[in-house]
Amino acid sequence: MSAKLDALKSDSYTEISQYRDQHFKGNRYEQEKLLKQSNTLYVGNLSFYTTEEQVHELFSKCGDVKRIVIGLDKVKKTACGFCFVEYYTRGDAENAMRFVNGTRLDDRIIRTDWDAGFKEGRQYGRGKSGGQVRIKALISCALTF
Q1: In terms of CB atoms within 10 Å, which end of the chain has fewer, N or C?
Q2: Whole-model pTM?
Q3: From which domain of life does this come (predicted)?
Q4: Three-class DSSP category at 67
Q5: pLDDT tens-digit readout, 109-122
Q6: Nearest Cα residue to 83 out of 43, 112, 52
């Protein structure tokens, strides 16, 4: 009977995905631990024209947003399709994972994922030219884990 009730506690929307940041400084265990207690989300598939204000308007519906860091092209310093959203509490970040992931912002379906925490320098895209990595490359990286 208790096994059936445990399924009710499961919340697949807030589970940690299989994707891991390949540039994380530390081992897999440390990264996993940080992801499980993080208040920071990675937001992907943003339009290059989406503003910080638009991101704040959407994500603040789930709780108090501490800060937003828009991803930039390393060379041109222009937006390149992703950002980090940091909340004050884990509960607010979980609400964003539940309710914002897969919604439309600026005419694009955005995706959210847990992030181990923003550190300076991570706001720059990692593509060859300093822009964001193509989605195919992200998918293939995620499948290798």
Answers
A1: N
A2: 0.77
A3: Eukaryota
A4: strand
A5: 999 999 888 888 77
A6: 43
